[in-house]
Write a structure and sequence with these properties.
Blueprint: H1 12-31, H2 34-51, H3 58-80, H4 96-114, H5 118-129, H6 134-141, H7 145-165
Helix pairs in contact: 1-2, 1-3, 2-3, 3-6, 4-7, 5-6, 5-7, 6-7
């Protein structure tokens, strides 16, 4: 689980180095495309630079970065109407057969995630994949905890049904 209270250094460059993987990983899991994820990450850090480093705490900075990342992904998805899946996972397995099976499973999961409404997809990515608490996800998405729990429940039901079809 990501520790949003982890101390951050004060300079912009250090914050980018510390948070870049988090932003890229989250954007990729929502968008399913590395090129789009990289553009979202760039825009997130551009907004951080414009906003300045005047956050009350490191936790508020972490939540702000997640919120901006998710919002940019939602906007991009709305504009594109569908997010293509990038098959380049850069994962290695013990054997070629096991690697092929894992790649197929990842592709099926990414395809299933793509079928979810973007808010449900964001809730699943943040809660189940990034490991944030329901309260943290609610704060990032600007929702109530009960709404996040409902979105995750619906998304898991839809994912299970979609994966069973395959």
């Amino acid at each position: 689980m990501l520790d949003l209270t982890r101390p951050l250094s004060g300079t912009f460059d250090e914050v980018v180095r510390q948070r870049e993987n988090q932003v890229l990983r989250t954007a990729y899991r929502i968008l399913g495309n590395w090129a789009d994820a990289e553009e979202v990450a760039q825009e997130t850090f551009l907004r951080l630079h414009r906003h300045g480093m005047g956050f009350a705490s490191d936790a508020s900075l972490g939540a702000w970065i997640y919120r901006v990342t998710v919002n940019l992904c939602v906007d991009r998805t709305r504009r594109a109407k569908s997010a293509p899946i990038d098959p380049d996972y850069r994962d290695k397995a013990a054997t070629p057969e096991a690697g092929a099976i894992r790649e197929q499973q990842k592709q099926q999961l990414m395809n299933a995630l793509e079928t979810l409404p973007v808010k449900e997809r964001a809730a699943i990515v943040l809660r189940e994949i990034e490991g944030l608490s329901t309260a943290e996800v609610a704060a990032i998405l600007g929702s109530r905890e009960v709404t996040v729990r409902s979105q995750i429940s619906k998304a898991l039901t839809r994912l299970r049904a979609r994966l069973e079809q395959l």
